[in-house]
Protein 1
Amino acid sequence: MPKHVAVIMDGNRRWAKQRGLSMELGYEAGLKSLRELLKSCCNLGIRVLTVFAFSADNWSRPKVEVDFLMSLFGRGTEDELKNFVREDIRVSVIGDSSKLPTNLKEQIIDAEEATKNNSRLHLIVAISYSGQYDIVQACHNIALKVKDGLLEPSDINQSLIEQELETNCTIFPYPDLLIRTSGELRVSNFLLWQLAYTELFFAKALWPDFGEAELLEALQSFQQRRRRYGGEGS
Amino acid sequence: MVLGIGWTINHIFSLFRRCIYVILSVGPIPNHIAFILDGNRRYAKKHKLREGAGHNIGFLSLTSMLQCCYELGVKHVTIYAFSIDNFKRRPEEIRYLMDLMQEKIEFLPKEENLVNRLGIRVQFFGNLKLLSEGARDSAQSAMSATATNSKAFLSICVAYTSTHEIVHAVEQVCKEKKQRKAWNEHVNLDDVERQMYLANIPEPDILVRTSGANRLSNFLLWQSAYAHLYSPSALWPEISFWHLIWMVLNYQRNYGYLEKQQQNMDHVNVFGRSNP
């Protein structure tokens, strides 16, 4: 069983369009799908679940859509907080929070604080996140340490960068399995450094249609793969 | 007589390939395709050959695929020839691969039908200090010999991992800041990108990994943020012209979606990336 599963929840708008529904209903259905996935992961003993809720690139979408998503994230966080506490789920949000509405920022801080000691499953929600920017901000933090004389440029290694990436909030920062729904075959600037050895699984189902059966299919595929990490054993 | 027939069949197939290229060229042709050459050892095992034979046949597949790519109009091809992780393999295999690499690198600029005829500039990226002296010298020679070519580009990643490339870039950014005492400037995307080994190579449009494995294996992580991923089950020595056609058709099918994303992003200058 993978310890850390990452998901790109793609296909909400296409799902809505296919059914002649509004974009908002597509995203609501997506949120429902996420709730189900969270439950399944808890039951299966998965320790970390990272989901790509909103990319840094998504700020270019129509304002109506962005505003709706921001309010959906806020509502989702508040509605689920009791559940997180009850189910011993820890919540963290990664991404550039500077662009988020103030009330959402506060809701996130509250949720992170209320669940910080939970340990059954760690849910990491990537909002306004960019894999490339994650590396850039890690570089910036390291540069500050060099400025303060805490280290020399020649001391910089993989471990140092790992410690500065936003996934440093978990002891399992590298996903074992990445699932992307809706048939798109790309990682779209999600976790980049962290995906170095991750098994990729591309599901045809649109995100609101991704359920337990599809998750089991992805896990089965993962279990059949032989991970060599560049070494022997072909 | 037999030679005549062989030559004719070759010629017909060549014409046929060119017809396909013309048809494909109605749509967008990827500018850069990157390949992870996986499956040479499994191929040798499958056909009960000695292990090294898989790599040799893999090299033939490589020259064949390169020819198809460049004829189609793909300007940049990048290959993952040897990972830093591969140094974990048995010393005999590593020694064999270093010798094979040296032999093939020396062969490249001599090959009249490929590198010089097509005006390909060959470059090697990675921690070249980890290579055997012979392989390293051959690489330097090949780079010098083709430095003035500019019709197309072949980037060979050896002793490479993406995380090593990023560590190196971060180190360079910090060294530069320290030198210029430019601590007030926030590090931005361009700062990091400029220090990457492949800084002067455009991002791959398609990233291909053969042998059915669906993972990036620490190859071009930064550069593949938006690349279309193609994962045929064929082992590398089995890759063919038809795989190239299939991947380009899929790329063209997704192109509209990607172009729209790009247009949207150009309006939003995120994280200090300067718009072209």
Protein 2
Amino acid sequence: MTKLLEWLLGVSVVVTAWGLLTFDLLDLKVPQVYREVVWPMPVYLLVVFGCYSIATVGYRVATFNDCEEAAQELQAQIKEAKLDLKKKGLKF
Amino acid sequence: MIRYPLVSSNLLSSRAIRCLTLLACVENLFPTFQSLPATGADQVAGMSLVCFSLVLFTYYTVWVIVLPFVDSDHVIHTFFLPREYSVILPGMAALILILCVGLFIGVVTWKNRKPKKVD
């Protein structure tokens, strides 16, 4: 089974469970409090995923190390490459 | 208009090719070079993103999951909008985000359109 099929299967199981609970299709008589919690679940999971993404990006931006030597060496090599390419006629 | 030959090895010296591949590799960290902690502005931006996402997560979790279990006459309900907004507001935000992305793509495509060549 491919990854796509696995994901689709998982998503459809979750969506069916949510649909059954929210619209009470099986007449399970779930208490009102729990139904109140279940029905915004898809939006809630999306928001949580968005928060996790923002937090991960922010954390990695904050902990990304500077490489001073490498930066200067790179600048020098960029100048060299530009001169080289200008000689060959490439327009910048 | 100068026409360049299609074979790229005539156009770029091997040194230039190496320099340009180094440019492409700059996205990765260099473990062999000495590294310093990120500069101030980066840390501030990163930490503010983390804090913002934590605040948003806590508020939204309390709103969606905790509030239904709290008595309806508790004072905490005054800090939160009616429950319908917990679905409507993220939906609106997602629509606005998609609109902005589409607008950006449209503007960039419009700017880069070239008139057809007349031969």
